[in-house]
Specification:
2 copies of one chain form a homodimer.
Chain A lengths: L11 E4 L5 H7 L2 E6 L1 H4 L7 H11 L4 E7 L3 H14 L2 E5 L10 H8 L4 E3 L1 H13 L6 H5 L2 E3 L2 E4 L8 E6 L2 E6 L3 H19 L5 E9 L4 H14 L3 E7 L4 E9 L2 H19 L3 E4 L4 H12 L3 E5 L5 H6 L9 E6 L3 H8 L3 H7 L4 H14 L4 E7 L14 E7 L4 E7 L4 H27 L1
Parallel strand pairs in A: 2-3, 2-4, 4-9, 14-15, 14-16
Antiparallel strand pairs in A: 1-11, 5-6, 7-8, 8-9, 10-12, 10-13, 11-12, 16-17, 17-18
Helix pairs in contact in A: 3-8, 4-5, 9-10, 11-16
Chain lengths: 445, 445
Amino acid sequence: MSVKIQYSEIYTIIDLTKIKRKEILLKMNAEIISIGNEILCGRIIDTNANYIIKKLEEINLYIRHVSAVGDDDEELVASLKEAYHRSQVIITTGGLGPTEDDITFQSIAKAFNLKLIKHPEAEEHMIKILNRIKIDISKSNLKQAYLPEGSRCIINSYGTAPAMILEKDNRIIIALPGVPLEMKNLMTKEIIPFLCQKFPNVQHRQSRIIRLSGLGESTVNEKIKDFIHKNEHLNIGIYANPEDIQIQLNALGKTSQEATAISDEATEHLKNLLGDFIFGFDQQSLEEVIGNMLKKRNFTLAVAESCTGGMLGEMITSIPGSSDYFKGGIISYDGEIKEKLLGVPRETMIKYGQVSEQVARAMAQGVRKKCLSDIGISITGIAGPGGGSKEKPVGLVYIALADEQQTIVQEHQLRRDRQTIRLRSARRALNMLRLHLINIEIINS
Amino acid sequence: MSVKIQYSEIYTIIDLTKIKRKEILLKMNAEIISIGNEILCGRIIDTNANYIIKKLEEINLYIRHVSAVGDDDEELVASLKEAYHRSQVIITTGGLGPTEDDITFQSIAKAFNLKLIKHPEAEEHMIKILNRIKIDISKSNLKQAYLPEGSRCIINSYGTAPAMILEKDNRIIIALPGVPLEMKNLMTKEIIPFLCQKFPNVQHRQSRIIRLSGLGESTVNEKIKDFIHKNEHLNIGIYANPEDIQIQLNALGKTSQEATAISDEATEHLKNLLGDFIFGFDQQSLEEVIGNMLKKRNFTLAVAESCTGGMLGEMITSIPGSSDYFKGGIISYDGEIKEKLLGVPRETMIKYGQVSEQVARAMAQGVRKKCLSDIGISITGIAGPGGGSKEKPVGLVYIALADEQQTIVQEHQLRRDRQTIRLRSARRALNMLRLHLINIEIINS
């Protein structure tokens, strides 16, 4: 595809986990079997396993083994037997559909010498769904209502395939559909509550993401490591995207209330340590936070972009309702546009170059004026791979912010490839705006 | 992160594979063991396995089992023994580093009762690399030079950890590093050539991606299905991103030459069936193709964006050297900007609305004039979730293209969420430009 960098790519991880994995594993084993030729053929990456792992971690259940097998009865039976030997909780995904290669229930029955028993509630649900979408029930659909004897049928509200929980000789076998939406829904609504009740001794976990901008991950680590090492009820990871940093905070408690209390206290502590570098929590994005700040202050915004070519505008307008505060902008990729549309004096460009503090300043002031906005932001830089020199290397970026009172310019030297340099430039511009809006608030209050 | 849609998200797959997987599997078994707590803790999704699967498929080796285990000697030894029992080729990734929890070589040695033998070439390479980055060699580094007896040491040019190939009793055990860059390099340069030579009977595969824009995947399927079903040496999948379509063409032959010949013939056939809907091959992007066309014709381009907020400009400028043909643009999010900077008459906006054929037309003409470019493209639409009405629902988008001769306007009704509607709008604008540039060529020739 065209855009090479996935904005959500996570490329550095500092792991500060303090959980003694081994000790926990000795008490309790869980494992996942992902079923389907599409995984073994490389057509899809198995993201279901990762989701289940994370969900179980929230209730302090840890996975010791993950495997993927094709839609093959013999292989699946063998894998189920191995898993049964190894683990107390086995979760399978996939193979519950109506087609011939959906064999999970049959293979479970075969592996543990069980009959397949019809579950009328599964059949009823299936007929209801198929009626709604006006499809006749077929023999292959009916197959889905036959579950291994002794199992509990779990109705899947998002699809025809029921899931199941089978308890046998101190083992729990759970079969979930492979469609991510259906699997996630059942995991959250059915499986997690079931396991919490089954293993009341498991610790509860309260997860929170703390989002930061403007600091590198090693600085974040330095700032918070003493706090983390002191607190044994916390389990913390620092994740870095090309620009923003996330702290994943997991608080453990005997009850959900206790976990929440620990999490809240830790959050307060981290707020003191990290101050304004924190821009949001959980799913909040920097764009959203800035949008709320602008709306609250009744400010409008315009952008002038050179090397980012529209990326900053794209990010700002990704937020529904951004038309309340975003007026627009000028993509001044060419010097002529800088002069003609933004009013950057030609002499300034000749004297200092298009990538310079002076041009960034004139661009921000120009776009503010041309778009009649309260604030103007500009970006001009060398994204590479060509165009750099000894004096002005690839990655040199100027970001300016102009409002009624003043114009501020920042110089950045960014690294990595073209797309990352562009991405970082746009993210830093957003963060510059955020900090500026906080400062105004402080000055005015 | 801020941008919710990953541009490369693949969400629909039509599988036309004709390979008789089961038959092939009976002849030859391969499997993958991914090693590392980071997978079982959910911190990373194991994408290495998927890469290896695809690479092996190219030489017609199929994976029958994938598993992931933690950095635990006991578990890894057990998994290796199971794999040895089950498969002829076993590929492990991870656990080759210098730290205490990197145990792959030790566990392989233990599982198959082998000694660990020092490989001087591995030590030498390690010292060379560590010297270069000015790090003293430590005892834990030296551990990496000890490989199970009988194995071949494979020098890893991207890191200190050597990889290994062990042949034992008609089984092949391959241990690769877990760092994707290192693993991929070794897989391509060392492991694939080794396996090709080891299994000369495996069919050769020539893979090619054919990239299309402007057709839905079911239409692509309709157009090509007869051809596919006739040809048993072809193995074809259709993959759809939110906008572009990819045909993955795998040609199978007894030799690499034969596979290439089949692939070339099929490509020619598909070109006839799909014509101008094909915009490129393999890693080519639509932006790159358009850039080359503009450069060849010596045309310049400018964009006027409303609902996409800069996304089209961002895509165009993702290509290095785009300053040769891209002059810039105007993000006219607000009506005032449309009037003031693009010269869209206020009466036109009042009479027809900002999302209308007339406004799109005036925007494209305006940006062409203001930016002094040969071609101007504009996008105006309702990305939602708010702002729609019965007459103008969410997803209604107008795209216009103006050049010296004419102005063309397209009306689109797009579906899904805000970000997908924006993405599709930008992709369709790019494709409209591509087809326009082809047409000009035909008219002028």
